[in-house]
Design brief:
CATH class of the largest domain in chain B: Alpha Beta
Helix content of chain B: 25-40%
CATH class of chain A: Alpha Beta
CATH topology of chain A: Alpha-D-Glucose-1,6-Bisphosphate, Chain A, domain 4
Strand content of chain A: 25-35%
Number of helices of chain B: 15
Number of helices of chain A: 4
CATH architecture of chain A: 2-Layer Sandwich
Oligomer: heterodimer
Radius of gyration of chain A: 17 Å
Order of helices and strands of chain A: HEHEEEEEEHH
Strand content of chain B: 15-25%
Radius of gyration of chain B: 21 Å
CATH architecture of the largest domain in chain B: Alpha-Beta Complex
């Protein structure tokens, strides 16, 4: 996993700025994570570009519905069980290399993301770099966003990418949920 | 089913738990016919491994019969008799494809937790704390085995459980430790610790052509077992440094194997710091091995370390240009060639077993092994055997080394100094 840049003051929130949404740029959050996956860029791009696949490994997403070739509707949940919804559009893409999306103007969660696929040297697979940017709104919604991305958003993204990698390389995501456990533990655990 | 569960420091209990089921498509479920207690289980038993939780099922050395397979399992069928590696490896990541199975990227569900400690995650392990995935272990009647096409290998009918079981860990672990020494003609290998891994390291060093093997321990029956393999033994209470110099003509051993790890005895400094949790590990052996190893030699470390260690003479290692080799064993890499060696009769791993007990008596088995009582070197647990009332325990246990064999042949013992 690569480096995280979190809570970066003055982070460049490109999409929102580009569209001229009034934001306080010093409240922008950005998470960047990298992982190398032992599959071709074509395979990874194909899986990711079908945005409806994302909730399979991104645990805070309940669903993503593609409503047109570039538009989609996202439903996410926080660990506390509350949900948030927004519409997003793919703003830039290069087949097998790059996808960037951002929420529509006026969304309750102003956010954007991108993923880049780049061949790793010496046939080590593909380097995947994910960038997520969001503006935490103030007030109750801000608290929701904080919960949505977890207390430590970079850890959540790191876990999502570990699951993405495991699924793309092995066809499954490792788990111990529902395995037997002795007394003292209330139920089978997730971890 | 019955399973041996961890409940705290020196508190393990055999209790009824739900049977394991297929969870992922590449899983298998195995009915365990034999399972062993590993020296590294004692680190869990003694409370030196973090992230264990109450109720966790222990055990990473086991074999048995396949009773169920997931839909993606191709190489195994229900009814196959298999032995299972202690590490869980996906077979598809870069590390697995380069035979570094214990460094698997994908098998640890707690990958980020592990990476927070180690920088990058390592493979999941059976029954070895949540840092290593929290997988239920094999000291149970049944166990779920993920990535069943990668790890388990079929055991030929002519081999007994006792002969095949240790392919799961200690034979490959001792072998990898010896292989890491890059043994050349004339080489002398010194091995600290005559526990089960040390015993297999001794025999592996000879299989790989060592001229002489020197084994260091202070427990008589373990030293006898080392001598039976042809090793020269030194008591750890002797001046090990001088004794090794004498045996090696003043050159020092060409390679040194630390088959003891983080719970080594002998240093008050480390015992105090360890007890007060100011130090995770007690690296007494490691310090000694680095000092005595010949210039340009190799220090190979199969003994488990889990955290921080103090006063490691790194300058010594630098000055002498030592090579340090360590890590969990890439069991999958060694199972097939070592199974071949067993079939060819080059080694019979059952030599190491001193005790056989029903799984139901697992708590007593741990206590006996931990205290090294009754000449205990290696315990095999049988899940299908009925529990034995405590008074009869003694009659069930087998002591293969009677008093006569304990009498060390003088020729192999170093003369008292």
């Amino acid at each position: 996993m690569g480096t995280a840049v979190k809570h970066e003051p003055g982070a460049r929130v490109t999409p929102a700025r580009r569209r001229g949404i009034a934001i306080e740029k010093n409240r922008a959050r950005r998470v960047i994570k990298c992982v190398t996956i032992n599959r071709s860029a074509e395979d990874l791009y194909r899986f990711w570009r079908r945005l409806e696949n994302l909730p399979f490994f991104a645990r805070h997403l309940i669903s993503v519905k593609e409503t047109s070739p570039t538009e989609s509707h996202w439903v996410a949940k926080s660990p506390a069980g509350t949900t948030a919804e927004w519409d997003a559009v793919i703003v830039k893409e290069t087949p097998n290399e790059y996808i960037a999306w951002e929420s529509n103007p006026g969304s309750e969660i102003d956010n954007a993301g991108s993923v880049r696929f780049r061949p790793a040297p010496a046939n080590q697979g593909t380097e995947v770099m994910v960038t997520l940017e969001y503006i935490p709104p103030v007030g109750a919604l801000g608290a929701l966003i904080a919960r949505l991305y977890g207390e430590e958003p970079d850890i959540q993204v790191e876990e999502d990418l570990a699951r993405f990698k495991a699924f793309m390389e092995t066809g499954e995501i490792p788990t111990t949920v529902n395995q037997p456990v002795g007394s003292g533990a209330r139920t089978s655990r997730a971890a | 089913m019955k399973a041996l569960c961890w409940h705290g420091k020196r508190d393990v209990r055999v209790e009824r738990v739900p049977d394991p089921k297929i969870i992922n498509p590449s899983d298998a479920v195995i009915r365990v016919t034999s399972t062993a207690i590993c020296g590294s289980d004692l680190h869990l038993y003694n409370g030196f491994m973090p992230t264990l939780k109450e109720g966790d099922i222990l055990g990473h050395e086991f074999m048995g019969e396949v009773v169920d397979i997931g839909r993606n399992v191709k190489k195994l069928a229900v009814g196959d008799r298999v032995v299972v590696p202690f590490n869980i490896s996906c077979g598809a990541c870069w590390y697995c494809q380069h035979q570094e199975f214990s460094l698997c990227d994908n098998s640890n569900p707690n990958a980020v937790l592990n990476a927070n400690l180690n920088g990058f995650t390592t493979a999941g392990l059976f029954g070895y704390s949540h840092l290593y995935g929290g997988y239920a272990g094999g000291q149970a009647e049944f166990v779920r085995v993920p990535f069943a096409d990668v790890g388990p290998i079929k055991v030929p009918g002519e081999l007994s459980d006792d002969q095949a079981l240790f392919l799961s860990d200690i034979f490959p672990t001792g072998y990898q430790a010896a292989e890491s020494c890059n043994i050349q003609p004339g080489h002398i290998v010194a091995i600290w610790g005559c526990g089960p891994v040390g015993q297999f390291a001794i025999r592996s060093a000879f299989l790989l052509g060592a001229h002489k093997v020197v084994a260091i321990d202070n427990i008589p029956e373990r030293m006898v077992m080392a001598e039976q393999a042809g090793a020269v033994t030194i008591s750890s209470s002797e001046n090990v440094h001088e004794a090794l110099k004498e045996i090696t003509g003043g050159r020092g051993p060409d390679s040194c194997i630390d088959a003891v790890g983080m719970e080594a005895h002998g240093s008050m400094y480390d015992s105090v710091k360890h007890t007060m949790r100011l130090e995770n590990d007690r690296p007494v052996v490691l310090r000694q091995a680095m000092r005595i190893c010949r210039k340009g030699g190799t220090v190979s470390i199969p003994g488990v370390y889990s955290g921080f260690i103090d006063k490691i003479p790194f300058g010594v290692a630098f000055a002498k240009g030592l090579t340090l080799r360590m890590g969990q064993t890439h069991v999958q890499k060694y199972m097939r060639p070592l199974l071949d060696r067993i079939q060819r009769g080059e080694i019979d791993p059952s030599f190491v077993i001193t005790h056989r007990l029903p799984l139901a008596n697992g708590d007593e088995a741990y206590a006996t092994f931990a205290r090294k009582e009754q000449g205990c070197i290696k315990v095999v647990l049988k899940p299908d055997a009925p529990p034995t009332p405590k008074p009869e325990l003694e009659t069930l246990t087998r002591a293969p080394l009677d008093r006569e064999t304990f009498a060390t042949p003088r020729s192999k013992r170093l003369q008292p100094r």
